[in-house]
Specification:
Helix content: 10-25%
Shape: globular
Number of strands: 16
Distance between the termini: 33 Å
Number of domains: 2
Strand order of the largest sheet: 11-14-13-12-15-16
CATH architecture of the largest domain: 2-Layer Sandwich
Mean pLDDT: 94
Strand content: 25-35%
Low-confidence stretches: 1-6
CATH topology of the largest domain: Gyrase A, domain 2
Radius of gyration: 19 Å
Length: 317
């Protein structure tokens, strides 16, 4: 097919529930769990309450993202962090190295908990009065803890965390492609194994979606992240791009004016669910490349087309 000339996100039909095998869950328990994570993450979790969830990043000393999380606090001395399952073991091992004498026990809680993605009017109706009042608010339902996510293309979305033995919601089966397309279209980055240490948080818009707190105390890479924010103009950002060819995280993108080096990297990608819609990706790009024709994989690769972002992104380079 030929890509249409418009840059509007095509409709994404999604209605129902889906187990999210691509996500895992780390649990931090103990009197020092919050203070320990406060010193490790880009987000202020010290004041996190049971009714809220927050995005957060975990950086190397060079300010490069090792993981991204959605963080909850189901109990005063317990926090849970959802992240990509393919990098959970390495992240859990690294975090555990720094616990030292802190009264904090870290564990992989994935086996005992089920994470489900909910989307569409059926999910909204199922939750009823328990549907959270705003994105990143958390409510307790009979089925588990429900975190509302930002809407995409008019579709309500949420994450449900429930005991693995609990019955799943009585909802239609949600197609994995539809959920993945909504996730990419949201513009909220998720670090996976293929993109570990590739990005400073601002390069993937993490602070624009609420994942970085610049008023909190120190954490690994904090000086680099702060310097990127306050000294000079940011040179790279993430944008939505569409292609006829399959795309995957970690794949390089090239601009026609500088074929000798990559202009960016695919952060997350998914096939749009309807035939003929192609593929959608969140792509980290040099701002100077935005005015150029963009290619996937090689300087002669498939053409890429920009798609409107769901939130403002500064484009001055």
């Amino acid at each position: 097919m030929n890509l249409p000339a418009d840059t509007t996100l095509p409709p994404i039909a999604a209605d129902g529930a889906l187990p999210l095998a691509e996500l895992g869950l780390i649990r931090a328990e103990g009197a020092d769990a919050a203070s320990f994570l406060q010193a490790q993450l880009t987000q202020d979790v010290s004041q996190l309450d049971a009714g809220s969830a927050r995005l957060a990043g975990y950086c190397s000393a060079k300010g490069r993202l090792l993981a991204s999380f959605v963080v909850w606090r189901p109990a005063p001395e317990t926090l849970e962090l959802a992240c990509s399952a393919d990098l959970l073991p390495a992240v859990l091992k690294r975090l555990s190295m720094f616990v030292l004498r802190a009264r904090c026990r870290l564990s992989d809680a994935s086996a005992g908990q089920r994470l489900l993605g909910l989307a569409g009017p059926a999910a909204r109706a199922w939750a009823g009065e328990h549907w959270p009042t705003a994105p990143w608010r958390v409510t307790q339902t009979a089925a588990g803890r429900l975190t509302r996510l930002p809407e995409v293309a008019g579709r309500p979305r949420a994450l449900l965390v429930q005991p693995a033995a609990a019955p799943a919601p009585e909802l239609p089966a949600l197609a994995p492609a539809a959920w993945q397309a909504l996730e990419v279209a949201s513009g909220v980055p998720r670090i996976v194994a293929a993109t570990v240490e590739r990005f400073v948080p601002q390069m993937v818009n993490l602070e624009l979606v609420g994942g970085v707190n610049f008023q909190k105390g120190c954490y690994p890479g904090q000086e680099v992240v702060a310097r990127s924010q306050y000294r000079g103009t940011l040179k790279r950002r993430a944008f939505l791009l569409r292609a006829d060819a399959p795309m995957q995280a970690g794949q390089e993108v090239y601009a026609d004016d500088d074929p000798g080096q990559p202009a960016g990297t695919v952060v997350n990608a998914a096939a749009l669910p309807e035939p003929g819609q192609g593929q959608l990706a969140l792509v980290e790009l040099k701002l100077t490349a935005l005015a150029q024709p963009l290619r996937l994989g090689t300087p002669a690769g498939p053409a890429l087309q920009r798609v409107a972002m769901p939130y403002p992104v500064g484009e001055a380079g």
